[in-house]
Amino acid sequence: MFENIGEVVLLCWRTLLALPQGWRQRQKIFEQFFEIGNASLLMVCVLSFFIGAVIALQTGPVLAERSLSSAIGGVVGIAVAKELAPVMMSILIAGRIGSAMAAEIGSMRVYQEIDALRTMNINPIYYLVLPRMVAIVAALPMLVVFAILVGWFGGALVADYNQRMGIPMHAFFSDLKEIVNVKDVANGVFKSFCFALIIGSVSCHQGLTTMGGPRGIGRSVTKAVVNSIVAIVVFDYLLTRLLLS
Amino acid sequence: MNPDLSQLSGVNLVVRGLCKQFRNQPVLADVSFSVNPGEIFVIMGPSGSGKSVLLKHLIGLEAPDAGEILINGDPVTSPEVAAKYRMALVFQSGALLNSLTVGENVGLYLTEHRLKPEEEIQKIVREKLADVGLRDVMDKMPSELSGGMKKRAAIARALVTEPQLIFYDEPTSELDPVSAVVIGEEILDLNQRTGVTSLVVTHERELAFGIADRIAVIMEGRIVTVGAPDEVRNAADPAVKNFLQADFKRQPKNLRA
Ligand SMILES: Nc1ncnc2c1ncn2[C@@H]1O[C@H](COP(=O)(O)OP(=O)(O)OP(=O)(O)O)[C@@H](O)[C@H]1O
Ligand SMILES: [Mg+2]
Fold first, then answer.
1. Which chain B residues are closer than 8 Å to A107 by Cβ?
2. What span, in angstroms and rounded, lies between the C-alpha atoms of B216 and B219?
3. Kind and range of the H or E element at B71?
């Protein structure tokens, strides 16, 4: 995967240069945007609810035993906002949308549709990559904001109903408010913005460089998802380190 | 040069010493020929002889290992060529965009480059589809068309760009004899109407001898004969002779006996 990093960065850069013409592709951007929302909103909901819930379940009893119940809201709040929602949602979207991008662009490559575009002087970066990149970069941070809220709610519900914690919901949220501030949420949303760029450029690049027949498309899809996830986890560490200072 | 003139008339194409290898296997070996403005130049050759690869080079989709391709004297990959001349390639597979309807495919060049208002595009698309004998397919998806219909839609898509140089890769290979004649006549008609330089790749002898001003025969990546149809028909090269005259040797069975 490492030999391609330069090409992926180049693709990202070219897309950025194409951005001024982006308005002309607005219809395709909206289509992609709604497709991402449609395809993933329900899954985002379920996933983030249970992530928040399980964090409360894992940490809550331990904290409560040491009479630190008032910290549960903060722990769940920080963990979900800064780490779990951005990373898990990005991994979900890499699997759900990155794979679709690689498959669509890859099959266009294999069946010479991209060659056909080029003979008509239509730049595949404007026509195919730009709308997908803009859509995912806009959609993923929004999904993450939504996921954070749902995750908090999941945590609060468990903290309330689980006998070993028994923290009423309003207490959970006021504890949470004390520790978590807007900067923490912004931190998570910013990370997801970077992850969206990674998913978009890795998947589109993988699609554009697809070789061979249906097998090649399959290979591209797998590589797009795996490489995106690896890059997300590595960048997660780097970004967290960077945002800490 | 007068841009108005260059808009109307066909362009001249020169190919010199073109070589290409895929994984050390030569596909094109020193291909040279030239096509005059407004000419219909047919390239014939057996399957796998490198015809489709040659066309991809001519339109600038593939870069040659050696040799040059000049459009009115400019290298095909130079930015001036893209700005000055309109070229189109009808792919052997059609290469319609599967996510768009047939109508959107045919009008794609005009919509993406914002050349005409929407209603006018619709009208042009309908006209061009009718020219190739397709009706009521505007709103169908390419996957709902037969192989031959796809090929004809691809030809319509190429016609919409009003090219000055057009490459057809086996335009009639999937068509019944009647549709093949319609397409052959459309190629001739377009050539006469607009003076477009046309390069047709085919292995169908009727089409080749029916429309060609000149014919080249390519075998194993080399041009073995070039000339007017009659010259090629009477070529001495035994391989060419064999290719042009191949026929079924089997006699019909006498079922009664
Ligand atoms: N991308 C590629 N990579 C490797 N080899 C290729 C590639 N494209 C074509 N070839 C090889 O080049 C040779 C010529 O192929 P080409 O498609 O030009 O044949 P053709 O003359 O168009 O045949 P047909 O009449 O069957 O369409 C074939 O041997 C093919 O295997
Ligand atoms: Mg071919």
1. 98
2. 10
3. strand B66-71
What ipTM was assigned to the predicted interfaces of this complex? 0.88
| Nearest chain A alpha carbon to B81 | A121
Classified by CATH at the fold level, domain B9-77+196-250 comes out as Rossmann fold (3.40.50)
Residue B3: its pLDDT value, please?
Answer: 39
Given the structure tokens 């992530």, which residue do they identify? Answer: A51
Q: What distance in Å separates the CA atoms of residue A84 and residue A91, rounded to the nearest whole number?
A: 10
Q: What is the pTM of this model?
A: 0.88
Count the alpha carbons within 13 Å of B170 in the hemisphere toward its beta carbon. Answer: 21
A-B contacts at Cβ under 8 angstroms: 44
In this predicted structure, the answer to whether residue A245 has a pLDDT above a threshold of 80 is no
> Do the beta carbons of residue A101 and residue A224 sit within 8 Å?
yes
- Of all residues in chain B, the one with the smallest CA distance to A119 is B88
**pLDDT above 90: percentage of residues in chain B:** 47
Range of the domain at A181: 2-17+25-237
The pair of structure tokens assigned to A231 is 């890059």
Chosen for mutation from A21, A27, A107, A119 (greatest number of chain B CBs closer than 10 Å) is A119
Burial class (CB in 10 A: 0-12, 13-18, 19+), B35: buried
Nearest CA to ligand 1 atom 25: B47
How many domains, in total, are found in chain A? 1
